[in-house]
Amino acid sequence: MNIIKFGGSIVNPDGKYDNKVIKEFIKLVTDKPKEKFLFVVGGGKICRNVQNSAQPFLEESQPNQKMVHYGNDWLGIATTKINANYVREMFANVFGDEVYPEIILDPTVKIKSSARIFFTGGWKPGHSTDTDMMLMAETFQADKVFKISDFEIVKNVRPLDIHGKSKEEMKKILGKAEDLSEMTWQELADLVGTEWIPGLNTPFDPVATKIGLKLRNKLSVFICRKEQFSKALQGEKFRGTIVKG
User: Fold this and answer.
1) Residues 6 or more apart from 120 whose CB is under 8 A from it?
2) Are 46 and 7 in contact (CB under 8 A)?
3) How confident is the model at residue 104, as a pLDDT?
4) Which residue spans of the chain are classified as CATH 3.40.1160.10?
5) Has residue 58 got a pLDDT over 90?
6) Which of 23, 54, 81, 102 is the most buried (most CB within 10 A)?
7) For the ranges 90-99, 181-190, 200-209, 232-241, which has the lowest average pLDDT?
């Protein structure tokens, strides 16, 4: 099972779906007709648009900021499912019954099906779809997962150290930082932590990292941009980060 997570910004970069990118994924699956695929789809810009629109209502209706964050999480989860179903429909138009007919709702339950292509979005508040990807890996006993990111490679910078800085400052710090092309799960945990912090931008979800620590002897994650994904999937050298061991 190839478990692949990509942010909603990959398929919906500016509020509109990029069918060209989705067709690229379809081509990759077409080239591997005997392999199974599970795609975990994020929220992207449509998620942020929905959350921003709902913010005044949440601020007025919820008793505290914790519940505002909780409401935002549920809105984000809903948009991941919308995105996942859009991509699933495009795949179904090509692969027919090879595509599981529904979005997987619970990543901890293994689906019994003859289908070879599956889709899911977010599950619960308190983590990102990185965690859903890792839960799927545990459920399906996968030995590798792929995260298609909007950055090239993990940098040796603690997210908490740059949180709140301007984009210019962040770019300058990241530009000078060491590239981490390979690291252990413990090294990733030391970098990003293992506790979810709402609003903190991390190269990998801390809650997902905690699952990785548990599966460290069984599971590797490959993190790269879309342009490098085909190489990573084929086991070729790629520009990105591998976390294992």
Assistant:
1) 38, 39, 40, 41, 84, 103, 104, 105, 107, 132, 136
2) no
3) 95
4) 1-142
5) no
6) 81
7) 200-209
How far apart (Å, rounded) are the C-alpha atoms in residues 44 and 23?
Answer: 18
Out of 3.40.50.10140, 3.40.50.10900, 3.30.420.40, 3.40.1160.10, the CATH code matching 1-142 is: 3.40.1160.10
Ranges 39-53, 123-137, 175-189, 192-206, most confident: 175-189
Rounded to two decimals, what is the model's pTM? Answer: 0.90
